[in-house]
Design brief:
The complex is a heterodimer of chains A (about 290) and B (about 450). Chain A is built from 13 helices and two strands. By secondary structure, chain A is mainly α. Chain A folds into two domains: about 30 residues, no CATH class; about 230 residues, MetI-like (MetI-like fold, Orthogonal Bundle), CATH 1.10.3720. In chain A, strands 1-2 form a two-stranded antiparallel sheet. In chain A, strand 1 and strand 2 form a beta hairpin. In chain A, helix 1 crosses helix 13 and helix 3 packs parallel to helix 8. Chain A is flat. By secondary structure, chain B is of the alpha+beta class. Chain B has two domains: about 170 residues, D-Maltodextrin-Binding Protein, domain 2; about 220 residues, D-Maltodextrin-Binding Protein, domain 2 (3-Layer(aba) Sandwich). In chain B, strands 2-1-3-14-6 form a five-stranded mixed β-sheet. Chain B is globular and about 70 Å long. The chains are: A mainly alpha (about 290), B alpha+beta (about 450). Chains A and B meet through helix 12 of A and helix 3 and helix 16 of B.
Amino acid sequence: MRRVRLGEPGTAWLFLTPALVLLAGMLLYPIFYTLWVSMSDFDLATFQPTGWVGWRNYEAVLNDPGFLESLRVTAVYLVIALPLQMVLGFAIAFLLNVPWRGRGVLRALFLIPMVVAPVVAGGVWRMLLDPLWGVVNYTLGLVGIGPVEWIGDPVLAMASVIIIDTWRWTPFVVLIASAGIMALPGDVYEAAKSDGAGRWATLRHVTLPLLVPVMAAAFVVRWLGAVKMFDIALAATKGGPGNATNVVNLYIYEKGFRSLEFGSASSMATIVLVVTMLITFVLFRVSRRLENRW
Amino acid sequence: MKSTRLVAAVAVLGLAVAACGSSAEEVPADGGGLGTAQQPVSIRVIANDAFAKQWQDKLVPEFNKKYPNIKVTIDGIPYNDQLAKTMLELTGTTATYDAVLADDPWIPQLAKTGALYDLKGQELAKWNDPEYDWADFHATPLAAGEWEGKQYAVPVRSNLLLMFYNKSLYKKAGVAEPTDETTWEQYFADAQKLVQDTDGDGKTDSWAVGTYFTKDPLTPTVWQTVLNSDGGKLLDDKMQVAFAGEAGVKALQTQVDLLKYAPPGASTYQFNEPLEAFRQGKTATMFMWGSVFKGTAVDKETTTLTPEEVGITTMPAGTAGPGAHRGIWSAGISKKSEHPAAAWTWLQWVTSKQGEQFVGKEFGTFPARNSTLDGTPPADWAGPVYQALKDGYEVASKGQMWRPRLPESDAVQQILALQTSRAMSGQATSQQAIDQAAKEITELLKTKGYGQ
């Protein structure tokens, strides 16, 4: 009896097959289904995509001022929240890296926001920021400030969403940054010290360049998390007032699951997917270039 | 030898599979009827999470006193997810739920799936309770479950947007209590005095009004009611926008102006916040769903107020009369139900005179039957409340005070919610918000094949 030998690539493919089948089912099928829906008329009576409409849904959403506004709102949120979380995260990680009493407790406490469900976080912060009952306005009132309409004012509502998101996700950056800082090679620092480098010079010319790969990785991971944010906005502001905090995923969710406009919602989701992939590709290229530079 | 074994194994497997689906286990056409002690029937109901637990804990045991062999499970779904989940349920290939609950404007959309029984039709007639009295229902709540001449659902929790007022705060401000003849002009004149310092410490601690102000599909119902009480409509009979004029702008501006007399932070008020403010004695009036009356005036664990302190009447009058806004939860039976007899029996019991009186007494739920409205109230507090409800039903019917009745109702309400929020937050004037809402709704209805 002849035994069939698969060889190394064959064996690899054999072991990969279950994962590939699972991925295809869980990832590719929904993506292709979304594409199909985005180019169809969605019949609510059967809850199925029916007639082929080509690019009609795409044309409609690209002319939808609400969708374009939600893209702008998302950009504002990302441009402010991501750098803020990165700077805060790394700064706190540096502080936690210095030996001092109680830093272990603080490290543990930092993990709490990450394990709080986003909807709960949004709801709790909404209560904290309430002008009549909330503790934040009460405290501000003691020094003669307020009452401040944190959620009711369009500008402050965006600030509130960024604050909540930063409270929730900065610990994640702290965690990654701490791991990176602890893995830095000690001999490089000894060399810098013997060369007479001061604290700032060491930070600027040794620590930060060595941490670039970690920063890049943390940024990309946070970018991918932040771009799909909608739960905090939903729980805290419902995207309001008006469209002030209506991030694109919340807009798509409401179009799809409240207005039941599945054709438009799928077109928007596809556009966001393509844009996200393009920006992620650029981010990967930039981070690789930065790693090579240092 | 090997192939014989294989054939035998396949045959055994085939027999086993066939046995599993044999007629001995087949469910009869009525889904097992009303069940027996040995073989009870189980049904599931998709309901709103605001009252699902109440129903499961108290209503189902009461039902089981009469029908012990029908096991009922009530699943509560958050309001914002309920329509989409129900649509998926009704259009799916298999049924999880035997009965579905729907808010007032959802019925056309759910009925359009073709997956709901006509409750007055022939298909369910063989399981009709002979004592079930359709004629006893008040026409206003019953109409919520009707679409294109068929009765797809029956009222299980009737509701109206009404005006609550705190008599103590009115007295303290030296203002006469509102009646069903109070106009919006009079209301605003009173509102200025109702923003007051009640404990004399020099700081305002009580405000005139609380209601929906945030970005929510229910927020526009306030100005829609103002529009209706001036004789206006959202959509005309041809399903064309009818609010894009002076009347629409005036109605929306009325709601925007209310915010001036509301507590700090009221622009984020949804359902719970104005309710809590009123129950804590922070607001003198509240435009809210009437069914919260018991929790607002009677139940000591949820309110600081007493039934003597809380008044309820229709919303202030416009040029055509007072206002109210219909919001009826109705229930229908899924055609995919495997137990239609049990499901329809359950629904008939819940909406029977007996069932309605039970929920009225236990939960303070508003009735839809004339016999309950005109009969002995379940408690002293219910007398004036039922009177306000009857007045409200008449007013709502007369002014067609409900959300648009078409399958795209929720999409229309979403557009109105966004534009109302823009006006409330000052991102747009009332005129701009109304114009934009009119434009978007016209475009939406056009794409859905309505002549515009």
